[in-house]
Every structure is written in structure tokens, then in C-alpha cells.
TrEMBL record:
Topology of the protein relative to the lipid bilayer: Multi-pass membrane protein
Transmembrane segments: 35-53, 60-80, 86-105
Stored Pfam families: Multi_Drug_Res (PF00893)
Keyword DNA-binding: no
Location of the protein in the cell: Cell membrane
Similarity field: Belongs to the drug/metabolite transporter (DMT) superfamily. Small multidrug resistance (SMR) (TC 2.A.7.1) family.
UniProt key word Protein biosynthesis: no
Record's keyword terms, sorted: Cell membrane, Membrane, Transmembrane, Transmembrane helix, Transport
Protein name in UniProt: Quaternary ammonium compound efflux SMR transporter SugE
Lineage: Bacteria, Bacillati, Actinomycetota, Actinomycetes, Kitasatosporales
Organism (species): Streptomyces albiaxialis
């Protein structure tokens, strides 16, 4: 079970990677980010597929999406100049709280 959770966490991080690579690919006009997008997407999906064989689908999917969403939002704020506001940070904390809650209640 611990392995499934570890794979799920890595898969969520890969979701952040493929989302940021998608943006960097400039609509698939840049080869490097486009290839990174495809590799990270495949790895992320494969990891999620493995995790759902050991973790309930709803929990696994919510954790996976939560990690990807928070990671991508933080990347946007830290690297891309997306606005950093108290409201945005509070919303990200709510997502993290929900993900942690799902893990603890599993």
C-alpha cells in the first residue's frame, strides 16, 4: 500500500510537469517541451493506473489532481508571474487540506 501511495505522489508531480511542459511547448511548436509533455503524461497516467489498483479510485484521483493543480499553480506564481494573492494562497491551502484529509481518512 505504501508503494501505491508513493507512486501516486510521483504521478501527481508528473502531472505538474506535463502541464508546465504543455504551456512551454507553445502549442506543440517546440520539440523539447513537447517530448517532455508526452513522456511526463504517459508516466503520470501509468502511475495513476497502478495506484488505483490499490487505492480507491475517488481518493486516488482526487489526490493526483490536487497535487497536479497545486504544483502547477505554484509554478505559475513562482515562474510565470501569475498573481500571488492571499485569496489564491488560501484556496491552494484548502486543496492541500482536502488531499491530506482524503489520505488520512483512507
Amino acid at each position: 500500500m505504501a508503494l501505491a501511495w508513493g507512486v501516486l505522489i510521483v504521478s501527481g508531480c508528473l502531472e505538474t510537469l506535463w502541464a508546465t511542459a504543455l504551456e512551454a511547448s507553445r502549442n506543440f511548436h517546440r520539440l523539447g517541451p513537447s517530448v517532455l509533455f508526452l513522456v511526463a503524461l504517459a508516466g503520470s497516467m501509468a502511475g495513476l493506473a497502478y495506484a488505483v489498483t490499490h487505492i480507491p479510485l475517488g481518493t486516488a484521483y482526487a489526490v493526483w489532481v490536487g497535487i497536479g493543480a497545486v504544483g502547477t499553480a505554484i509554478y505559475g506564481m513562482a515562474v510565470l508571474g501569475d498573481p500571488v494573492t492571499a485569496a489564491r494562497l488560501l484556496c491552494l491551502l484548502l486543496i492541500v487540506g482536502g488531499v491530506v484529509g482524503l489520505k488520512l481518512l483512507h
